[in-house]
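Lab channel / #folding
Pinned by the channel admin:
"Please post every new chain as: sequence first, then the structure tokens as a reply. Keep commentary short and put observations after the output so the thread stays searchable."

First post following the new format, from NK:
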Amino acid sequence: MSTTNLNISVIEKRMFKETEAASYAGLPVKHFKIACPVQPIQLRQGVLLWDKRDLDLWIDDVKTGTQAATHDAILARL
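Reply from TO:
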């Protein structure tokens, strides 16, 4: 019996297009556009990309309630 070796190298993406960022956050694009405060960056002309690390921070803030507290504080000052 013969054996075969398979070497696979996977490079994890850090920057996402809008549809990928929405999918990563578990939201449809239309809800992602409304809910996500993370600003995309333009690494090349005309291409907006969302940083995975910024998305992770936003999701963590939502989980801990930090984002809601910040929004409430801003509204209270108005």
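NK: The two ends are 75 Å apart (CA to CA).
TO: also worth noting, The first helix runs from residue 18 to 25.
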